[in-house]
Amino acid sequence: MASRSGYGASLTVGSYTGAELTDVRARISHAPVEVSDLASTWVERQPGLLDWEVTGTKNYASEAFLKLADAARTSVVCKVTDMKGTVIFSGVGFITNGGTNLPMGAATEEITVVGNGTAPSKP
Question: In this predicted model, which residue has the larger pLDDT, 11 or 113?
Answer without folding.
Answer: 113
